[in-house]
What does this fold into?
Amino acid sequence: MAGDMPKLEIRAVIHVATSMYRLTGLPLMAKAAVVAAVGVVALSPPVTLGAGAQAGQSVSLHVEETTGIRRTRYPVNARVPFPQGALARADQVRLLRDDEEIPAQFSAGSHWPDGSVQWLRVDFNVSIGPQETRAYRVEYGPGVSAEAGPGRGLALVEDADAIQVGRVTFSKTAAPLFRSVSYRGEVIGPGRNGFAVEDTDGTAYELGGDTGVLFEIIRGGPLYVELRYSGRVLLAAGAEVPFVVRVEMPNSKSWVKVTASVDDPEQRLRALSFHSPLALGPRPWVWDFGTDRWTYGSLRNEDSSVVLTNDVEVGGETGWHVDTGPKGQERPYETTGSTRPVVAGWGHLQGETEVVAFAMDRFASAPGTYRIALDGAGQASFHVAPATPVTRHRLTVYQHFVGAPVQIGAATSPPSMLHPLVARVDPAHYVASGLEPPADR
It folds into this structure.
């Protein structure tokens, strides 16, 4: 029976503000240009169903807050499976809570051989209390369509070599990745910009460049945008490894999530890293890391540096340490001591008018060396090197851009961006579709 079936999870990718601040949404671009749309989007207030309500089949969807933090207008990214032939098009759906239609963005993640939808992406925003569960249903069928009218959200403005998503502009080559982040003023400066791999000889290679990169718009908003870059990295002696870079942004938070995955069947690589060049105005800049002691300090000049390193089962030892000082000459500042030997991998860098909250997903979650480095020139770097050779490297980094002084009073914390809401689809629907729940959130 359905009640005896194991719970299957789809984790919603979301980012939350820190305990220091809360955003109410992203500013919108004034100019109209090429707006890339994927699926059908509804952003208007909920619509109450009347006597002439549409009829169709439905799938139950439950959203759970499991971290104990209140979330306001947080993005949920659910994936719903369908049997072949059950859903002809992604516009034959709507999202309901009780008798109210919820504004949502629908798009087909994949199709069956007959062209019907195999995986349906459902993107929407939720306000939910600590450890609360909300019940929804996805109604679908030939006579079903979203009644809530389209509204404002993230617009995509595209030209030959760049794409602008709200107030953030990305290149189409992945290297450099960020062209501009400008909510109040420009936050991107000169420096390393994007993902890189390091081979076993210590040589670094950028992911992307001027040739051979395929750029795609996977989800075009307005609630949620996803960009995809794919290509190959040419290593020494003519060897190549394939890579994929994904960029994701919701309309309700001013954060950017970037993920790189690199397949390395011959185990030629030893590390994967992400680099973000920040421009935060006059120094000093205040930094902090989410250790048990909430370690903090300042970068007072261009040569200043701070590095958080967490070794997990490296040489038989697990522990973290923070080093500070002139770049290349850092000295111990804090070490594990009596605290837990693994930290969460998040922190902040705050200038006079801008604050960037950052986090590495799966930080210190497997044997290896994990590192976050910040310097007074504005370079932020995130690095993971597995303890033993692997055939697939993966790194996800979040950056949340807000103004200073930050808003006080948000009942949120950095761990919530690393612990997304959980969206559960009726297990019986997986059985009917013959599909397995997604492995990655």
About this structure: Helices lie at 415-418, 427-433. The two ends are 27 Å apart (CA to CA).
